[in-house]
Structure prediction request, 190 residues.
Amino acid sequence: MPSSDAAAAVQNFLRSMQGNQALQGGLAEPQERLFTTLPDLLPSSTTIPVIDSAEENFIDNLLRQLPPDLMLLAQEVDDLSSVDPTSETAEAAMEALSLDQKKEILRKVLRSPQFHQSLSSLTSAIRDGGLPSISDALGIPVENGGYINQGGGVPLGGGDAVEAFLNGVQTSVEKEKEKEDGVEDKMETD
Prediction:
């Protein structure tokens, strides 16, 4: 008798699953909600005009995020192995560049296949469950730390993870802007 009870429970479960499929029109709900990719959000047609109209302070901040060797290459250093690519060296090389030269470096980076491949790889890593560690490493706060539930355990994946990452980036930018505005307001009142 116990085996027939187990068989009946399995049969009931299977029938309930078939009923759920019938209620959904015979189709199972897609497991992943589609959401855009980082390369789709940051095409050259969007990023290059930002660079072209940017002020020098913004351009310098972006250049500081790039490998120091790029500044040295722009200065046409013949033998990179003989130069220590420290932040001081890169900073000096960057200061020696004109604004047009700085913008051209950024345009080349933004048009490069390596940049677009990196954006694709980052999108894949986020979609495949890497959101908690990626957001932590980049200092981008995301809801529930990038996990499905607040307690952790299962990371967000798919389009939900990409959306959470972008929301975190937006929140970080807004907080940074508020900080900057607060500092400017305080300086004006002093």
Notes: The first helix runs from residue 2 to 23. Residues 19-29 have pLDDT under 50 and may be disordered. The two ends are 86 Å apart (CA to CA).
